[in-house]
Amino acid sequence: MCNSSIPAAYRVPATEGTPGPEAARRRDFPPAPEPLPVPVMDNHTHLDFPEGAGPVGIKAALDAAAAVGVQGAVQVGCDLESSRFTVEAVDQDERLLGAVALHPNDAPHYAAKGELEAALAEIERLASHPRIRAIGETGLDFYRTEGEGLRHQEYSFRRHIDIAKRLDLTLQIHDRDAHSDVVRVLREEGAPERVVFHCFSGDEDLAATCNNQGWWMSFAGTLTFKNAANLRGALSIADRQLIMVETDAPFLTPHPHRGRPNASYMVPYTVRAMAELTGSDLAGLCTAIGENTVRAYGSWT
Prior knowledge:
Layout lengths: L39 E6 L12 H9 L3 E7 L3 H11 L5 E5 L6 H6 L3 H11 L5 E10 L6 H20 L2 E7 L2 H11 L5 E3 L6 H10 L2 E4 L9 H9 L5 E3 L21 H12 L3 H16 L4
Parallel strand pairs: 1-2, 2-3, 3-4, 4-5, 5-6, 6-7, 7-8
Helix pairs in contact: 2-4, 7-8
């Protein structure tokens, strides 16, 4: 079930002129889902992206989310510019916490310019803000990076792990086509106390590893895609105390609205899919997700 209309703020068209394949996406936002019976948080979103809160602003984006039971979000940086934005954003609304990092696909670009060490130092400075609760998104991505870039990517990942441990922050991991190597690096470096696999993309084997290590698995709209049998299998065995939900907005919009821009107010679509797939009571699942998220990032208040 869903409401009959798009939240008022999101009736503003998304930014025109998006390059590449994204230009073909439908630019209108989907209708709002029915509110959740118990509030949850979107633990990974990009409010600075043009199709994110860009058209509506941070307050309006969080108001739309709150109206359907999404009471807070984690704004995530993936380069210096977006990490600086994140530090500014968390001071604008108490419903927002932040994560800062160099995305694994960006680290090689900083290295190529001889700027990786300076960039990592700035990430550490930005992470000292009290409402920055995570180092992320960092990790490994074997889909978009190859060759010499992989060496810089792994080095950057190890440095982010070190920062998270020294500052006692949660580590938010980006893992694309690199499951075994991500786990290898975490074990070699010694994982921080709190680790979240953002947009969990593994299978039952990785879920079992996360269960054993106490690492959180954050599920996004990809769980609802027809070709995501691996994610549904992983969710089926995931420890209930280790699951969270996210949008990765403005990307990964859940079925039946795949291809349209995503936003935090669409979290309920994914949560309802999680409840249906696991045979869980919706209110009970929401309660567990909310408690897990606070354990991972601390209180929003």
